[in-house]
Amino acid sequence: MFGRHGFKFRGCGPGPDLRGEFMRRRRGDIKYHLLEVLKDGPRHGYEIISELEQRSGGFRPSPGSVYPTLQMLEEGGYLTSEQIEGKKVYTITEAGLKLLEERGPSPFEANPKMARAFEIRKQLMKLGSAAMDAARDGDEETAKRIADIINKARKDVYSILAES
Question: Which of 2, 21, 38, 110 has the fewest Cβ atoms surrounding its Cβ within 10 A?
Fold first, then answer.
């Protein structure tokens, strides 16, 4: 599909994949990724999510997919948890290590293109935050100047895309 500026639209935001280039993973692989992270040592949920983001090149799994899977793995005996300093810390068990061993090598392969896309997304979020601060707190002239800068940046990006 082509957008109004004549450039091919490839989707937006994180999703199951963008032209198949997101990450090589199959449905149900999250449990193996969680166990792979815990193989390196006990961690609490936020640390696990952060490590998954780092290993994937920028994709941050939602807590809504991580915590239920951790619970399922605990119920299956593949990991244990305990409260340490008010945080639930997870540890892989022998059964979890055996499950990873039976699975074979880790299929955790990040796509470099998606790592770049997530980095640009982070920068856009920072820009958006700064622009919203200016719109909220700045005067009319400041808001107009910032809107002009953003509009020019958008046009420059389309110009670069037209060249490639």
Answer: 2
Q: What does the pLDDT read at residue 9?
A: 37
pLDDT of 16 higher than 90: no
For residue 24, list its beta bridge partners.
109
Question: What's the pLDDT score for residue 161?
Answer: 86
How is residue 147 written in tokens?
A: 């809107």
Domain range summary for the chain, segments of one domain joined by +: 23-108, 114-163
Class of domain 23-108: mainly alpha
Query: Token digits for 152?
Result: 């020019």
Whole-number Cα distances in Å, 31 to 54, 108, 154: 17, 12, 40
- Positive or negative, the CA dihedral 32, 38, 43, 49 is negative
Given this model, what pLDDT does residue 15 score? 42
- The amino acid at residue 95 is A
* CA 62 – CA 60 distance, rounded (Å): 6
